Amino acid sequence: MSRVYGFLGGILVTTSVAYYTATEFRRNSEFVTGQLKQSREVLDNYGKPNPFVPRKIEVETRDDIKETMKDLWNHEIVRGVNWFYNIQWNVLGKRVENAAGKLVDSIKGATA
C-alpha cells in the first residue's frame, strides 16, 4: 500500500511543478508580448507629430439652489473638522508654554 501512496504522491508533485511552471511561462510570455507591443508602438510613432485631441469639458449641474447650498455647507463643515483634526496639539501646547514662560520672565524683569 505504501508504494501506491508514494506513486500517487510523486504524480501529485510532478504535475504540480509542471502546472506552476507552465503558468509562470504563460505569465512571462504575456508580459513580454505586452512590452514588445508597446515598443513597436513607440518605434512606429517615432518622429511623427502627436495628433491634437481636444479635451472634453464635463459640466455638473444641480437642479436647484437648495441642494447647492447644502453641498457648500457640508463642504465647509468637512473642511472645519479636517482643520481641527490636523492641529498638532503637542506643538501648540509647547508654543503656549514657551509664550507663558517668556511672559513670566518679562514680568519678573519688569518688577525686579
From TrEMBL:
Keywords: Membrane, Mitochondrion, Mitochondrion inner membrane, Transmembrane, Transmembrane helix. GO terms for cellular component: MICOS complex; mitochondrial crista junction. It is a single-pass membrane protein. One of its GO terms (biological process) is cristae formation. It is found in: Membrane; Mitochondrion inner membrane. Belongs to the MICOS complex subunit Mic12 family. Component of the MICOS complex, a large protein complex of the mitochondrial inner membrane that plays crucial roles in the maintenance of crista junctions, inner membrane architecture, and formation of contact sites to the outer membrane. Component of the mitochondrial contact site and cristae organizing system (MICOS) complex. This is MICOS complex subunit MIC12. It comes from Magnusiomyces paraingens.
